[in-house]
Amino acid sequence: MIQGLDPKKIPAHVAIIMDGNGRWAKARHLPRIMGHREGMKSVRAVVEAARKVGVKVLTLYAFSKENWQRPKEEVSFLMKLLSEYLQKEVDELHEKDVQIRAIGEIELLPRQVLELLDKAIKKTKNNQGLILNLALSYGGRAEIARAARLIAEACLKGDLKPQEIDEELFGRFLYTADLPDPDLLIRTSGEKRISNFLLYQCAYTEFYFTPTLWPDFREKEFIEALKDYQARERRFGKISEQVHE
Ligand code: IPE
Ligand code: IPE
Ligand code: MG
Asked: Quick one: DSSP state of residue 180?
């Protein structure tokens, strides 16, 4: 037992909508960016906690496609924070066997950020520990439309037949192609919405909403979310008796 958790029921894939940085700062009469800075400490804490308890994939919604519409100073600051993270943390993550990946329209990121990201991905690509999957410039509908486009192109080229398209094949054209679907989706800050995150992949994901703001969400709160998840019964459309067979 790790901190009261059942080691046999650790979710393989946890996805997190890290929300509430701005409100955390506002409550302290600080500029919004201070909330983002404090939120980075939660990223560190949660990555470490996920690794320790044996989560295999941690997907963090760090920047949505829609977030490009924020004031340009805030967008620049978020990009700066991301660069800092990639510069300061990658060596340690690499030592801890963490594999860094990214999903989303990352080609839209500033060139310097993209270079750091590419470097981090290449450096850690053979690591076998936690997969830290960063959703950057990510939008779920855009991802689905992109998959449809790629599939249409493959059909036109004659590499694929329309009758071969099923749920499983479609999934292979998403950014998350070789990852399991999220078992647990956590959203902080009290909002109860999905905000265009992993729309296709969350078909049977368990949702956990907490009023805690992201900068206050650390190891203890993460373990709480896992405990809540472990107490649930996932039926996938079946009845309880079948699940216990
Ligand atoms: C989440 O915190 C961080 C990002 C979306 C990048 P917010 O910045 O959305 O914080 P609130 O929701 O305004 O409190
Ligand atoms: C979702 O948070 C995106 C990230 C956490 C990166 P937002 O704060 O952008 O979501 P909405 O706009 O409140 O739905
Ligand atoms: Mg928000």
From this structure: P
